[in-house]
Design brief:
Layout: E1 7-11, E2 16-24, E3 30-39, H1 41-44, H2 52-74, E4 83-89, H3 93-110, E5 114-118, H4 119-125, E6 137-142, E7 147-154, E8 157-163, H5 169-179, H6 187-194, H7 219-231, H8 235-267, E9 274-278, H9 285-297, E10 301-303, H10 307-310, H11 315-326
Parallel strand pairs: 1-4, 4-5, 6-9, 9-10
Antiparallel strand pairs: 1-2, 2-3, 6-7, 7-8
Helix pairs in contact: 2-3, 4-11, 5-6, 5-7, 6-8, 8-9
Amino acid sequence: MTKKPLIIGIETSCDETAASVITEDGNGIPIVLSNVISSQIDVHKEFGGVVPELAARSHLEKIDLIVKKAISDSGIKLSDIDAVASTAGPGLIVCLSVGLSFGKAIALSLDKPFIAINHLEGHALSPRLNSNLDYPYLLLLISGGHSQFLNVKKLGQYERLGTTIDDALGEAFDKTAKVLGIDFPGGPQIEILSKKGNPDKYDLPKPIFDRGGCNLSFAGLKTAVLKIAKEIKTEQEKFDLAASFQKTIEIILRKKTLEAFKQFEKKNRFKDKVFVVAGGVAANKKIRSMLINLCKEKRYKSIFPPINFCGDNAAMIAMVGLEKFKQKQFSELDYSAKPRWALDEKAIFLKGAGVKL
Ligand code: KG4
Ligand code: ZN
Protein backbone atom coordinates (compact mmCIF):
# COMPACT_ATOMS: atom_id res chain seq x y z
CA MET A 1 0.00 0.00 0.00
CA THR A 2 1.39 3.43 -0.88
CA LYS A 3 1.94 5.82 2.02
CA LYS A 4 -0.76 8.48 2.32
CA PRO A 5 0.58 12.07 2.42
CA LEU A 6 0.92 13.72 5.82
CA ILE A 7 0.58 17.51 5.75
CA ILE A 8 0.99 20.04 8.53
CA GLY A 9 -0.99 23.29 8.21
CA ILE A 10 -0.15 26.51 10.08
CA GLU A 11 -2.53 29.48 10.46
CA THR A 12 -1.62 32.89 11.96
CA SER A 13 -3.45 35.38 9.71
CA CYS A 14 -5.33 37.19 12.48
CA ASP A 15 -5.87 36.39 16.16
CA GLU A 16 -5.83 32.58 16.19
CA THR A 17 -2.57 30.62 16.38
CA ALA A 18 -3.38 27.22 14.89
CA ALA A 19 -1.71 24.06 13.58
CA SER A 20 -3.15 20.82 12.26
CA VAL A 21 -1.92 17.55 10.78
CA ILE A 22 -4.04 15.82 8.17
CA THR A 23 -3.84 12.86 5.86
CA GLU A 24 -6.44 11.08 3.69
CA ASP A 25 -8.16 7.70 3.48
CA GLY A 26 -8.10 5.29 0.53
CA ASN A 27 -10.87 7.27 -1.20
CA GLY A 28 -9.04 10.59 -0.97
CA ILE A 29 -11.26 11.83 1.90
CA PRO A 30 -9.27 14.01 4.34
CA ILE A 31 -8.63 12.67 7.85
CA VAL A 32 -7.87 15.31 10.49
CA LEU A 33 -5.26 13.80 12.85
CA SER A 34 -4.96 16.90 15.01
CA ASN A 35 -6.46 20.39 15.09
CA VAL A 36 -4.98 22.76 17.69
CA ILE A 37 -6.29 26.33 18.02
CA SER A 38 -5.23 28.97 20.50
CA SER A 39 -7.38 32.09 20.51
CA GLN A 40 -6.09 35.50 21.64
CA ILE A 41 -9.45 36.89 22.77
CA ASP A 42 -8.04 37.80 26.21
CA VAL A 43 -5.13 39.71 24.63
CA HIS A 44 -7.40 42.01 22.59
CA LYS A 45 -10.48 42.25 24.81
CA GLU A 46 -9.61 45.52 26.52
CA PHE A 47 -8.90 47.21 23.15
CA GLY A 48 -12.25 46.27 21.60
CA GLY A 49 -10.60 44.73 18.52
CA VAL A 50 -7.48 42.95 17.26
CA VAL A 51 -4.26 44.96 17.81
CA PRO A 52 -1.84 43.76 15.08
CA GLU A 53 1.45 44.16 17.01
CA LEU A 54 0.06 42.38 20.08
CA ALA A 55 -1.38 39.63 17.90
CA ALA A 56 1.99 39.07 16.19
CA ARG A 57 3.81 38.96 19.52
CA SER A 58 1.34 36.42 20.84
CA HIS A 59 1.75 34.25 17.69
CA LEU A 60 5.54 34.36 18.18
CA GLU A 61 5.21 33.26 21.79
CA LYS A 62 2.87 30.38 21.06
CA ILE A 63 3.70 29.07 17.59
CA ASP A 64 6.23 26.41 18.55
CA LEU A 65 4.03 25.10 21.37
CA ILE A 66 0.99 24.89 19.08
CA VAL A 67 2.94 23.14 16.31
CA LYS A 68 4.48 20.69 18.81
CA LYS A 69 1.03 19.90 20.21
CA ALA A 70 -0.40 19.38 16.71
CA ILE A 71 2.41 16.90 16.01
CA SER A 72 2.05 15.04 19.33
CA ASP A 73 -1.78 14.93 19.14
CA SER A 74 -1.56 13.42 15.67
CA GLY A 75 0.61 10.53 16.87
CA ILE A 76 3.22 11.05 14.14
CA LYS A 77 6.80 12.33 14.20
CA LEU A 78 7.70 15.69 12.66
CA SER A 79 10.08 13.85 10.31
CA ASP A 80 7.09 11.88 8.88
CA ILE A 81 5.62 15.09 7.40
CA ASP A 82 5.52 15.23 3.58
CA ALA A 83 4.85 18.96 3.18
CA VAL A 84 4.25 22.13 5.18
CA ALA A 85 1.37 24.49 4.33
CA SER A 86 1.15 27.98 5.87
CA THR A 87 -1.40 30.74 5.39
CA ALA A 88 0.28 33.47 3.32
CA GLY A 89 -2.68 35.88 3.08
CA PRO A 90 -4.99 37.72 3.22
CA GLY A 91 -4.55 39.04 6.74
CA LEU A 92 -2.40 41.17 9.00
CA ILE A 93 1.10 41.16 7.55
CA VAL A 94 2.88 41.06 10.92
CA CYS A 95 0.77 38.07 11.92
CA LEU A 96 1.03 36.21 8.61
CA SER A 97 4.82 36.56 8.73
CA VAL A 98 5.03 34.47 11.90
CA GLY A 99 3.30 31.34 10.55
CA LEU A 100 4.82 31.79 7.12
CA SER A 101 8.40 31.96 8.43
CA PHE A 102 7.83 29.13 10.89
CA GLY A 103 6.38 26.90 8.15
CA LYS A 104 9.23 27.71 5.77
CA ALA A 105 11.78 26.89 8.48
CA ILE A 106 10.22 23.46 9.11
CA ALA A 107 10.09 22.72 5.37
CA LEU A 108 13.71 23.79 4.96
CA SER A 109 14.94 21.73 7.90
CA LEU A 110 13.06 18.61 6.72
CA ASP A 111 13.90 19.26 3.06
CA LYS A 112 10.18 18.91 2.22
CA PRO A 113 7.98 21.06 -0.04
CA PHE A 114 6.52 24.31 1.28
CA ILE A 115 3.03 25.38 0.15
CA ALA A 116 1.67 28.95 0.60
CA ILE A 117 -2.09 28.96 1.18
CA ASN A 118 -4.81 31.57 0.66
CA HIS A 119 -6.80 31.75 3.92
CA LEU A 120 -10.03 32.31 1.99
CA GLU A 121 -9.41 29.15 -0.03
CA GLY A 122 -9.20 27.33 3.30
CA HIS A 123 -12.64 28.65 4.30
CA ALA A 124 -14.02 27.94 0.81
CA LEU A 125 -12.97 24.28 0.92
CA SER A 126 -13.53 23.74 4.68
CA PRO A 127 -16.82 21.81 4.22
CA ARG A 128 -14.82 19.11 2.44
CA LEU A 129 -13.15 18.34 5.78
CA ASN A 130 -16.21 16.51 7.00
CA SER A 131 -18.44 15.85 4.00
CA ASN A 132 -17.87 14.25 0.67
CA LEU A 133 -18.85 17.24 -1.40
CA ASP A 134 -18.91 17.56 -5.17
CA TYR A 135 -18.18 20.79 -7.04
CA PRO A 136 -19.71 23.22 -7.84
CA TYR A 137 -21.31 24.64 -4.70
CA LEU A 138 -22.38 28.07 -3.50
CA LEU A 139 -20.49 29.38 -0.48
CA LEU A 140 -21.48 32.17 1.89
CA LEU A 141 -18.44 33.14 3.94
CA ILE A 142 -19.36 35.34 6.90
CA SER A 143 -16.51 36.07 9.32
CA GLY A 144 -14.94 38.96 11.21
CA GLY A 145 -12.90 39.97 8.16
CA HIS A 146 -14.88 38.77 5.15
CA SER A 147 -18.42 38.53 3.83
CA GLN A 148 -18.86 37.08 0.38
CA PHE A 149 -20.84 34.75 -1.84
CA LEU A 150 -18.59 32.50 -3.96
CA ASN A 151 -19.30 30.09 -6.76
CA VAL A 152 -16.81 27.33 -5.86
CA LYS A 153 -16.18 25.58 -9.18
CA LYS A 154 -13.22 23.42 -8.19
CA LEU A 155 -9.82 23.67 -6.47
CA GLY A 156 -8.33 26.98 -7.58
CA GLN A 157 -11.45 28.17 -9.43
CA TYR A 158 -13.61 30.60 -7.50
CA GLU A 159 -16.01 33.19 -8.82
CA ARG A 160 -17.08 35.94 -6.47
CA LEU A 161 -20.80 36.61 -6.91
CA GLY A 162 -21.09 39.20 -4.16
CA THR A 163 -19.09 40.82 -1.39
CA THR A 164 -19.44 43.47 1.28
CA ILE A 165 -18.64 46.95 0.08
CA ASP A 166 -17.75 48.15 3.59
CA ASP A 167 -17.81 46.21 6.88
CA ALA A 168 -17.71 42.44 7.22
CA LEU A 169 -20.75 40.91 8.95
CA GLY A 170 -18.77 39.75 12.02
CA GLU A 171 -17.37 43.25 12.29
CA ALA A 172 -20.92 44.69 12.23
CA PHE A 173 -21.90 42.30 15.06
CA ASP A 174 -18.78 43.22 17.06
CA LYS A 175 -19.24 46.99 16.56
CA THR A 176 -22.91 46.79 17.55
CA ALA A 177 -21.86 44.86 20.66
CA LYS A 178 -19.24 47.48 21.46
CA VAL A 179 -21.74 50.37 21.41
CA LEU A 180 -23.95 48.30 23.73
CA GLY A 181 -21.00 47.99 26.14
CA ILE A 182 -20.21 44.32 25.38
CA ASP A 183 -16.61 43.06 25.28
CA PHE A 184 -14.91 42.04 21.99
CA PRO A 185 -15.79 39.80 20.19
CA GLY A 186 -19.41 40.60 20.96
CA GLY A 187 -21.12 38.72 18.10
CA PRO A 188 -22.10 35.70 20.20
CA GLN A 189 -23.38 38.00 22.99
CA ILE A 190 -25.66 39.93 20.60
CA GLU A 191 -27.30 36.62 19.72
CA ILE A 192 -27.84 35.85 23.42
CA LEU A 193 -29.14 39.34 24.33
CA SER A 194 -31.44 39.41 21.32
CA LYS A 195 -33.48 36.56 22.81
CA LYS A 196 -34.67 38.89 25.59
CA GLY A 197 -35.65 41.77 23.30
CA ASN A 198 -38.40 42.88 20.95
CA PRO A 199 -37.09 42.52 17.35
CA ASP A 200 -39.72 44.96 16.04
CA LYS A 201 -38.87 47.82 18.42
CA TYR A 202 -36.41 49.61 16.11
CA ASP A 203 -36.74 49.93 12.35
CA LEU A 204 -33.10 49.73 11.19
CA PRO A 205 -31.81 50.49 7.67
CA LYS A 206 -30.99 47.71 5.22
CA PRO A 207 -28.33 49.23 2.92
CA ILE A 208 -28.39 48.25 -0.80
CA PHE A 209 -31.32 45.91 -0.06
CA ASP A 210 -33.08 46.37 -3.41
CA ARG A 211 -30.01 46.85 -5.58
CA GLY A 212 -26.43 45.68 -5.94
CA GLY A 213 -27.25 42.02 -6.65
CA CYS A 214 -25.99 39.85 -3.82
CA ASN A 215 -23.44 42.42 -2.65
CA LEU A 216 -23.70 43.43 0.99
CA SER A 217 -23.30 46.63 3.01
CA PHE A 218 -23.45 47.07 6.78
CA ALA A 219 -21.89 50.50 7.44
CA GLY A 220 -25.21 52.43 7.37
CA LEU A 221 -26.79 49.90 9.70
CA LYS A 222 -23.91 50.27 12.14
CA THR A 223 -24.26 54.09 12.14
CA ALA A 224 -28.00 53.81 12.83
CA VAL A 225 -27.34 51.41 15.73
CA LEU A 226 -24.76 53.83 17.15
CA LYS A 227 -27.26 56.72 17.04
CA ILE A 228 -29.97 54.74 18.83
CA ALA A 229 -27.50 53.31 21.39
CA LYS A 230 -26.69 56.87 22.53
CA GLU A 231 -30.35 57.40 23.48
CA ILE A 232 -30.79 54.09 25.29
CA LYS A 233 -31.67 54.33 28.98
CA THR A 234 -32.85 50.90 30.11
CA GLU A 235 -31.53 47.31 29.90
CA GLN A 236 -34.72 46.34 28.07
CA GLU A 237 -34.00 48.91 25.33
CA LYS A 238 -30.53 47.37 24.98
CA PHE A 239 -32.08 43.93 24.47
CA ASP A 240 -34.57 45.41 22.00
CA LEU A 241 -31.75 46.97 19.96
CA ALA A 242 -29.80 43.69 19.91
CA ALA A 243 -32.97 41.84 18.81
CA SER A 244 -33.78 44.42 16.11
CA PHE A 245 -30.18 44.23 14.80
CA GLN A 246 -30.26 40.41 14.73
CA LYS A 247 -33.61 40.44 12.90
CA THR A 248 -32.41 43.04 10.35
CA ILE A 249 -29.34 40.91 9.57
CA GLU A 250 -31.55 37.85 9.04
CA ILE A 251 -33.79 39.80 6.62
CA ILE A 252 -30.75 41.11 4.68
CA LEU A 253 -29.09 37.69 4.46
CA ARG A 254 -32.32 36.01 3.34
CA LYS A 255 -32.84 38.47 0.50
CA LYS A 256 -29.19 38.44 -0.63
CA THR A 257 -28.96 34.64 -0.43
CA LEU A 258 -32.03 34.33 -2.67
CA GLU A 259 -30.29 36.62 -5.16
CA ALA A 260 -27.09 34.54 -4.92
CA PHE A 261 -29.12 31.35 -5.54
CA LYS A 262 -30.46 32.86 -8.79
CA GLN A 263 -26.99 33.87 -9.99
CA PHE A 264 -25.48 30.51 -9.02
CA GLU A 265 -28.19 28.59 -10.89
CA LYS A 266 -27.65 30.64 -14.05
CA LYS A 267 -23.93 29.84 -14.04
CA ASN A 268 -23.87 26.11 -13.32
CA ARG A 269 -25.27 22.73 -14.29
CA PHE A 270 -25.62 20.25 -11.45
CA LYS A 271 -27.33 17.21 -10.01
CA ASP A 272 -27.73 18.69 -6.52
CA LYS A 273 -27.80 22.34 -5.53
CA VAL A 274 -25.54 22.78 -2.49
CA PHE A 275 -25.22 25.84 -0.25
CA VAL A 276 -22.37 26.00 2.26
CA VAL A 277 -22.13 28.59 5.04
CA ALA A 278 -18.73 29.09 6.72
CA GLY A 279 -16.92 31.65 8.90
CA GLY A 280 -17.43 32.59 12.55
CA VAL A 281 -20.88 34.18 12.08
CA ALA A 282 -22.16 30.82 10.76
CA ALA A 283 -22.21 29.84 14.45
CA ASN A 284 -25.24 32.16 14.94
CA LYS A 285 -28.12 29.71 15.48
CA LYS A 286 -30.86 32.07 14.30
CA ILE A 287 -29.00 32.83 11.06
CA ARG A 288 -28.42 29.09 10.65
CA SER A 289 -32.06 28.11 11.06
CA MET A 290 -33.24 30.91 8.75
CA LEU A 291 -30.80 29.75 6.04
CA ILE A 292 -31.67 26.07 6.56
CA ASN A 293 -35.36 26.88 6.07
CA LEU A 294 -34.56 28.93 2.98
CA CYS A 295 -32.63 25.97 1.56
CA LYS A 296 -35.58 23.64 2.20
CA GLU A 297 -37.86 26.09 0.41
CA LYS A 298 -35.56 26.39 -2.62
CA ARG A 299 -34.45 22.71 -2.64
CA TYR A 300 -30.81 23.30 -1.76
CA LYS A 301 -28.82 20.95 0.41
CA SER A 302 -27.44 23.11 3.25
CA ILE A 303 -24.04 22.41 4.77
CA PHE A 304 -22.55 24.10 7.82
CA PRO A 305 -19.05 22.91 8.68
CA PRO A 306 -18.81 21.99 12.40
CA ILE A 307 -18.04 24.99 14.62
CA ASN A 308 -14.33 24.07 15.00
CA PHE A 309 -13.94 24.19 11.19
CA CYS A 310 -16.21 27.27 10.78
CA GLY A 311 -13.97 29.85 12.42
CA ASP A 312 -10.26 30.24 11.73
CA ASN A 313 -8.40 26.92 11.99
CA ALA A 314 -5.39 25.19 10.48
CA ALA A 315 -7.14 21.98 9.38
CA MET A 316 -8.64 23.89 6.44
CA ILE A 317 -5.17 25.23 5.59
CA ALA A 318 -3.64 21.74 5.79
CA MET A 319 -6.44 20.39 3.58
CA VAL A 320 -5.84 22.90 0.80
CA GLY A 321 -2.15 22.05 1.27
CA LEU A 322 -2.96 18.35 0.77
CA GLU A 323 -4.88 19.05 -2.46
CA LYS A 324 -2.03 21.22 -3.77
CA PHE A 325 0.58 18.66 -2.67
CA LYS A 326 -1.17 15.99 -4.77
CA GLN A 327 -0.99 18.33 -7.76
CA LYS A 328 2.64 19.23 -6.97
CA GLN A 329 1.73 22.94 -6.62
CA PHE A 330 4.62 23.93 -4.36
CA SER A 331 5.81 27.43 -3.42
CA GLU A 332 9.29 28.90 -3.27
CA LEU A 333 10.81 29.70 0.13
CA ASP A 334 10.93 33.41 -0.76
CA TYR A 335 7.11 33.54 -1.01
CA SER A 336 5.98 36.74 0.71
CA ALA A 337 2.95 37.48 2.88
CA LYS A 338 0.03 39.10 1.06
CA PRO A 339 -2.22 41.39 3.14
CA ARG A 340 -4.74 41.38 0.26
CA TRP A 341 -5.30 38.27 -1.85
CA ALA A 342 -8.63 37.87 -3.65
CA LEU A 343 -9.80 34.37 -4.49
CA ASP A 344 -11.39 35.65 -7.65
CA GLU A 345 -8.56 37.66 -9.21
CA LYS A 346 -10.88 39.22 -11.83
CA ALA A 347 -13.32 40.57 -9.25
CA ILE A 348 -10.86 43.03 -7.72
CA PHE A 349 -10.64 44.95 -10.98
CA LEU A 350 -14.32 45.95 -10.91
CA LYS A 351 -15.03 49.58 -10.05
CA GLY A 352 -16.37 50.98 -6.74
CA ALA A 353 -14.75 49.04 -3.88
CA GLY A 354 -14.56 46.14 -6.29
CA VAL A 355 -18.34 46.09 -6.69
CA LYS A 356 -20.73 47.10 -9.47
CA LEU A 357 -23.86 48.69 -8.01
O1 KG4 B 1 -14.20 33.24 11.23
P1 KG4 B 1 -13.88 33.86 12.54
O2 KG4 B 1 -13.68 32.95 13.72
O3 KG4 B 1 -12.62 34.75 12.45
C1 KG4 B 1 -12.39 35.60 11.38
O4 KG4 B 1 -12.88 36.74 11.48
O5 KG4 B 1 -11.73 35.19 10.39
O6 KG4 B 1 -15.09 34.88 12.86
C2 KG4 B 1 -15.13 35.67 14.01
C3 KG4 B 1 -16.36 36.55 13.94
C4 KG4 B 1 -16.40 37.61 15.04
O7 KG4 B 1 -16.72 38.84 14.45
C5 KG4 B 1 -17.50 37.11 15.97
O8 KG4 B 1 -18.16 38.14 16.67
C6 KG4 B 1 -18.43 36.43 14.98
O9 KG4 B 1 -17.56 35.77 14.08
N1 KG4 B 1 -19.32 35.47 15.64
C7 KG4 B 1 -20.67 35.62 15.72
C8 KG4 B 1 -21.15 34.53 16.47
N2 KG4 B 1 -20.08 33.74 16.80
C9 KG4 B 1 -18.97 34.34 16.28
N3 KG4 B 1 -21.48 36.59 15.24
C10 KG4 B 1 -22.79 36.46 15.49
N4 KG4 B 1 -23.33 35.45 16.20
C11 KG4 B 1 -22.56 34.46 16.70
N5 KG4 B 1 -23.11 33.47 17.40
ZN1 ZN C 1 -11.06 33.47 8.52
